[in-house]
Amino acid sequence: MDMYNSKLFAILMHFDKYEQNRCRKYIQSPYFNRSEELLTLYEAFLKAINSSKKNGGLDKTYLWSLLQPDKPYDDVRFRKYCSDLLKLVEGYLSQQIYEKNPVEQATYFMQAVESKKLEKLSSTAVRTAKRLSKKSKYRSADFYLKQYQIEQTLYDLTEFETKRSHRTNIEQIALNLDVFYLAEKLRILCAAITQKSFVKIDYDFLFVQEIIKTLNEDDFDAYPPIALYHQIYLTLTEAENENHYHTLRNLLTKYGSLFPPREAKDVLYMAAQNYCIRKINQGNRQFTQELFNLYKDILSKDILVEEGELSPWYFKNIVNIALRVGEYDWAENFINQYSSMLPELLRENSLTYNLAQVFFFRKEYDKVLEQLRNVEYDDVAYNLGSKAMLLATYYETDEMEPLYSLLESFRAYLNRHKDIPVNRRKNYGNLIRFTRKLTRIMPGDQSAVDKFKKELKETKNVASLNWLKEKLAELED
Do 114 and 200 form a contact (C-beta atoms < 8 A)? Predict the structure, then answer.
């Protein structure tokens, strides 16, 4: 049993000092644990994790000597200690989530009051649950699930089953359940349709036609998760109708802040981004500006940064789109403002690469070379992008000798790195091939330009395609 490959070690490795201390207090609590050995084992794990030495301090026999110094090693019992400690740590993690959800706590309190028949506490329990629910910031599907649970528990507390002449809250129970169900069904359906666009996978869902018919016949705009996921569904199934996208944008402006940041960023706004990207890829240039506006909207809602960190993928895409719509100063200000929020290991690479992009679009080629010439990126995407940018910079500055040298080393890089996806390899391989041909065309040689243009049009998977077209147009003049 290798303790360094255990689930227990994997979980504890993710704890910072604050979480280590919080978990220690949980384990020390006699309500959750009465075994001093488990606390000793926990401390031994932390000592090994916090130590500068690698692979030391978690030998089974050594750990056993800390737990039972006067007894011979017993593997079955040792495994039991590890299993019990793992359950405690898992309990601690669950407790943290529970403590962050006051509405759930209040709902469970209502259930406890009902099960114990504590009638004097009934009104207080109901009032507290409803007050906390109304204070909830978000109105995602989960909000309506909690509302359903509160109303259902209220129904049980009031003993409506035995008071059949009274008007009950059964309508509220059903409404909240319906909203949760419709919203979640739409969310799952949209996820399935999106996945199907990448991979040929078919899913079979019940009541899809009935749900869509209901949504088309009734007005659910007052319920944010239904309104948004229904609109996303329409952008996926009736993509040619751009009005669906604009309606989605209006709903995001209206309701975007009513969803947890991760759902808003990774699902709702991502659906709008994907629609824009599909339109851009189809040649609809106006959606480039639309995508930039969308990114600015996301930034204004403060949902991109999670736990103090910004995704390098988002960072790069935002800079790229800002530059494509000519917002050079905005892009540079964004880089300076947000680069400190990038993960530390990727921060320097992201900063140099994206600043180089700004300088390239401004045609400040000396600064591009200063940023990129001596940088070798660990990330493949950055490496490929920087080489493509250097290639274009050498061409723009008429530096033919370093350009031809880069063309050769770039091709060797693609051949050497077999882990690069096939389509991406083709993209950059074609860029190398067309750039080499570009250098051989004399200005005004219309026959060569036409031949190049025809070949470029017939070739799929070409990186820096717009740049190549721009350079070709210059040769026509």
Answer: no
User: Is the confidence at residue 107, as pLDDT, over 60?
Assistant: yes
Residues 177, 231, 294: CA angle, nearest 5 degrees: 120
In the chain, count of helices (H) and strands (E)? Answer: 24, 0
Residues 294/272, Cβ–Cβ less than 8 Å: yes
Instruction: Render pLDDT for 422-433 as a digit per residue (tens, 0 to 9).
Output: 889 999 999 999
**323: confidence class by pLDDT, cuts 50, 70, 90:** very high
Q: For the chain, first and last CA: distance in Å?
A: 72
**DSSP letter string, 363-428:** T-HHHHHHHHTT---SSHHHHHHHHHHHHHHHHHTT-HHHHHHHHHHHHHHHHH-TTS-HHHHHHH
Position 56 scores a pLDDT of: 61
Nearest partner of 330 among 303, 290, 293, judged by Cα: 293
Beta bridge partners of 173: none
Distance CA(368)–CA(394), nearest Å, equals: 10
pTM to 2 decimal places:
0.82
Q: Are 277 and 291 in contact (CB under 8 A)?
A: yes
> Which amino acid does the sequence have at 289?
Q
- Which 8-state DSSP code applies to residue 119? G
Q: Are 328 and 355 in contact (CB under 8 A)?
A: no
Helix, strand, or coil here: 139?
A: coil
What number of other Cβ atoms are within 10 A of residue 422's Cβ? 8
Do the Cβ atoms of 321 and 354 come closer than 8 Å?
Answer: no
Asked if 267 contacts 195 with a C-beta cutoff of 8 angstroms, the reply is: no
